[in-house]
Amino acid sequence: MPNIASIARACHNANKAICETFGDFSQKSWEEAEQWQRDSAIRGVEYRLKNPEATPADLHNAWSQDKINDGWKYGPIKDATIKEHPCLVPYSELPAEQRVKDAVFGSIVDSMK
Q1: Cα→Cα distances 49→23, 62, 109, 111, Å
Q2: Is the pLDDT of residue 1 over 90?
Q3: What is the rounded CA–CA span in Å between residue 46 and residue 43?
Q4: 71 phi and psi, to 5 degrees?
Q5: Is residue 84 within 8 Å of 77, Cβ to Cβ?
């Protein structure tokens, strides 16, 4: 089994590719990403490994709670400086292109464990 950081890197880079598919070129590669972003992906992998039956909505809720615990809040534009993120909404309110990221994340973890 690859280590957790390797799985997190694959998840992060897949997320970057999904964002770019929908016109968002703001995401950095794993190697260029800030440590808080890499840590968030690692925590997501750890959550999925501990909760293999988690749905994409569960993954989103865990990610949201992690962000809130770290001082983030909803904001219309992602801004790490002031810790605002437009995806800090209930899963049912996420646009489809955002929901797909949770499904892909879970699938990558499942396939690499």
Answers
A1: 30, 13, 7, 11
A2: no
A3: 5
A4: 95, 5
A5: yes
DSSP secondary structure letter of residue 93: G
Whether residue 108 contacts residue 74, with contact meaning beta carbons closer than 8 Å, is answered with no
Nearest 5°: the CA angle 84, 78, 6 is 105
Question: The pTM is what?
Answer: 0.92
Assess contact for 112 and 2: CB atoms under 8 A: yes
For the stretch 12-69, pLDDT in tens is 999 999 999 999 998 999 999 999 999 999 999 999 999 999 999 999 999 999 999 9
pLDDT score, position 2: 76
Q: How would you classify the pairing of strands 84-85 and 73-74?
A: parallel
Q: DSSP class of residue 7?
A: H
User: Where would I find the beta strands (DSSP E) of the chain?
Assistant: 73-74, 84-85
The residue assigned the tokens 């534009």 is: 77
